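Quarterly update from the structural biology core.
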Amino acid sequence: MLWKYAAIIMIAVLSGCASTGDWSSDTPTKTNARASKAPRVNLNNQSVSKVYAPSSNLWIRIRDGYQMEPMNSPLEIEQVRWLSSKPDYVNRSMTRSSRYLFYIVQEVNARNMPTEIALLPFVESAFVPQAKSGAKAMGLWQFMPATGKDFKLTQNVFRDERRDVLQSTDAALDYLQRLNNQFGSWELALAAYNWGAGNIAKAQKKNLAAGLPTDYESLTLPKETRNYVPKLMAYRQIVLDPDAYGIVLPDLENHPYFVAIDVNNDIDVALVTKLAEIPAEEFQVLNPSFNKPVILAAANQQILLPFGHAEVFQENLKTYTKPLSSWTAVQVSKTEMVDQAAKTLGVDVDTLRSVNGIPKGMRIRAGSTVIIPKTARRPGDVSMALADNASLSLDKPPPPPSPKKCKKGTKCPPVKSAKGETKGNSSPKNAASQHKSASTGLAKSAKNGSVNTTSSKGVSKIQ
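Predicted structure, tokenized:
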């Protein structure tokens, strides 16, 4: 039965002050340490439609979980005024949050963290999962590349887990808990999340030396960090009393928006959207970490689908009899221009260039992983080694050497070929030998000055 290709799980743990009752399942947990925290609903013997939450209003649950004290500072008041003057902006970000807030709140509750922390993506990304800053921070929680690596968020050809809703949320909460333990307050933890733990420690050391307090409001901070906590407190205040600021919060049920599906065989993104009967755009906002048109089983991935479409996907998958994926991946063995690499791999050059995001005029360096269509010669799923370590490295070939200019009335010196023969400048054979020599030089120069590229999607302006 084709359902062996995917086990649908429910990301639904209700805890905290506002909830009563449990969501539970006897389905074995996944080996992924983060995914294993989520109990599951197995749709072979359970129905998604019969699962419900004890409370119907997520905003009430968020308010009941508040633990931080409002600052009531001029900066917080200024931020509240700014947000209340932009009701359309607030409404757009609140509406976007409806896909993710239930999951984030339940994870925050499970750790007994203040539910104000669940509102932090409003400050970081306005709940745009593809958000990309000028400093290359990514995702709802705006992880920088190095910090993402510290928290084991994979960043390779196939996926960038800084944009993954589940993985990045878990990593962000781990990070914030670590910072809270280090500095002893959520205000300082948040400041360190924005500016860096080392910088906060230095600022505290400077205040200690001067006999000054070391709390958040007493430290000398950059303007962005100084405004960071007041911005979060402003969202806290608006969620607490939206009517006072002329803001209408969207209705959010205390209920999962999405269901997570384990990927046990490679499957095309286009096929997932077809079988789940959802627009490609809806899939993208729930699964923004995927960089390529195929999702890999070897990467221990999960697909998020809207709650109501999980059973649709299940039923359609049961009757689907064609191959689940049309793409595979290979590692190139030598540095080549795209045209030559396409011939070597036996694929269409335009397809190779477009699916791998390779600009014209670039070479693919040896050791790079490229996505190509599956063939009878390469029918299998992508290996675990490539799924976890794939990288694409490109460089520009050096320009061909310009011919030496000879003085009038003098005979140009002969040009040596790659094998050392001496040929006349006007000979066609000499032109061929010059080309061969240049090609040899290109291969050697591949060791110098490369341009690394990775496929990623993001926005630089959030509205």
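The first strand starts at residue 8 and ends at 9.
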